[in-house]
Amino acid sequence: MMKNAVEVRDLVVVRGGHEVLRNLDISIGGGVTGLLGPSGCGKSTLMRSLVGVQQLRAGTVTAFGLEAGSRPLRDRIGYVTQAASVYDDLTVAENLTFFARVLGVGRAEADASLEAVDLGQQREQVVGRLSGGQRSRVSLAVALLRKPDLLVLDEPTVGLDPVLRRDLWALFHRLADEGAAVFVSSHVMDEADRCDRLLLMRDGRIIADGSPSEIRQKTGADDIESAFLAIVEEDVA
Ligand SMILES: Nc1ncnc2c1ncn2[C@@H]1O[C@H](COP(=O)(O)OP(=O)(O)OP(=O)(O)O)[C@@H](O)[C@H]1O
């Protein structure tokens, strides 16, 4: 069992004069951990904090015992944002070759990353002509180039059809089985059951933490959306 990949302590983040994260305490270990919550609740801000690109007002964030954003972590963390981070005018293979050179990894790793996201057959296609789901898999392949120990994925399945979503979740579990800690955000509650562990977020705070079945049981709800609503109601009562 992996020791905690990430430790967040008393984290406070202010953006635009508004306290977006409020005294967060989270530990993230192995497996697939989902961060679920409504739009604007602070998911991207938390992910930015984990990878070290967010200014913190207070608290600490460490990954593998090292301060988030510190140099030795760069090889160990893969981060995929919602915005596509690959070149539309290059082919899939050219993108991978380019980023492999920048990151100093070999061709074998580039090929392995492409295979991992199941884009071997699209390798000669120009990225700008791929579907949204294929394009996000190219970004994911780039993030996999250095075989990260921690993968931070910000809403990777947004806008994808159900088949692609299912395939991507299967890939996250495969990566977790191979030893990576996978931290995935979503605002789609029906993705909850695909996670080993769930963090439900609302208004900059974690309001529930457990496996999907634990969270359902605790609230007596049949699904995570109802559980979320029950927790919110209890919270404001
Ligand atoms: N660049 C910014 N400057 C100021 N405030 C910001 C900035 N980016 C985000 N915010 C604010 O921070 C809060 C949290 O935003 P964040 O992007 O972390 O939410 P989110 O849960 O990821 O939302 P979504 O699901 O829509 O991506 C929001 O209230 C948003 O208005």
From TrEMBL:
Keywords: ATP-binding, Nucleotide-binding
Domain ABC transporter: 6-228
Signal peptide: none
InterPro entries recorded: AAA+_ATPase, ABC_transporter-like_ATP-bd, ABC_transporter-like_CS, P-loop_NTPase
One MF term in the entry's GO annotations: ATP binding
Recorded superkingdom: Bacteria
Chain ranges passing through the membrane: none
Official protein name in the record: ABC transporter ATP-binding protein
Organism name: Nocardioides koreensis
